[in-house]
Amino acid sequence: MSNQTNSGLDLVLLGAPGSGKGTQAKQLSQQLELQHVATGDLFRENLKNNTELGQLAKTFMDKGELVPDDVTQKMVKERLSRPDISNGFILDGFPRTLPQAEALTEILKGLDRKLKGVLYINVSDEEIVQRLSGRLICRSCQTPFHLEFNPPAKEGECDSCGGELYQRDDDNPKTVHNRLDTYHKQTSPLINYYKTMGVLAEIKGEGDMDAITDEMMKVVRKL
Ligand code: AMP
């Protein structure tokens, strides 16, 4: 794709909750020296700091629903306006609706940047439910584990940083079901949206995590 803007390597990771966006974004952002911008993490950070935004977001997150577009877009616009994204960024969990995708195009236009690619990680619903129901996350560095498929060496403790592992409030069966429903209704139309724009690459998201990272790196190198 040609590029006559200020852009660095500006990428979006698309996929259902639990498809591995966070895990892969972490790997790719380290290897490519990009900023990892995860809207879910930004909301959780706000909640931890007890901000008004965090309190508002919680009412939607607890139900497995999306935080309203205007609120989310404002937060992303502020984040992408910081100088640390000059080299490029990986958006994880944004956009999640068509209006958000349109807003992203506008935000980037205002910054004289342009999306280089959208990597869609495709994972079946059955696998998503299995993954989320046993997921544990590190409170300090957000590294995910799984009780059955990827348990930590020491119970309750992160292998990477020693932080405390916890189960996210919204990783309970009822909320997982609602989040998947929300994904299919509101987010999956973005697959076609970005396909039509000619920026979509699909990656099979089941199997060995490192092999998936390698596959994604191959795709990114061709952008
Ligand atoms: P995640 O960590 O990406 O699974 O996001 C957790 C929750 O944060 C979601 O279920 C939503 O309630 C909220 N959230 C994250 N990103 C967005 C977004 N782009 N738009 C609206 N809500 C979001």
Task: Tell me about this structure.
This protein has 223 residues and is of the alpha/beta class. It has a single domain (2-124, 187-222), classed as Rossmann fold (3-Layer(aba) Sandwich), CATH 3.40.50.300. The protein is 46% helix and 16% strand. The chain contains nine helices and eight strands. The chain has helices at residues 21-32, 39-48, 52-61, 69-80, 98-110, 125-133, 173-187, 189-197, 209-221; strands spanning 9-14, 35-38, 88-92, 117-122, 135-138, 144-146, 165-166, 200-204. The chain has a five-stranded parallel sheet, sandwiched between helices. A three-stranded antiparallel sheet has the order 6-5-7. β5 (135-138) and β6 form a beta hairpin. α2 packs across α3, α4 (69-80) packs parallel to α5 and α6 packs antiparallel against α7 (173-187). The longest helix has 15 residues, at 173-187. The radius of gyration is 17 Å and the shape is globular.
Compute the number of structural domains.
1
The CATH architecture? 3-Layer(aba) Sandwich
Supply the helix-strand structural class. Answer: alpha/beta
CATH class: Alpha Beta
Shape: globular
Strand order of the largest sheet: 2-3-1-4-8
CATH fold group: Rossmann fold
CATH superfamily: P-loop containing nucleotide triphosphate hydrolases
Bound molecules: adenosine monophosphate
**Separation of termini?**
6 Å
Number of helices: 9
Strand composition percent: 15-25%
Please report the total strand number as a whole number: 8
* Poorly predicted segments: none
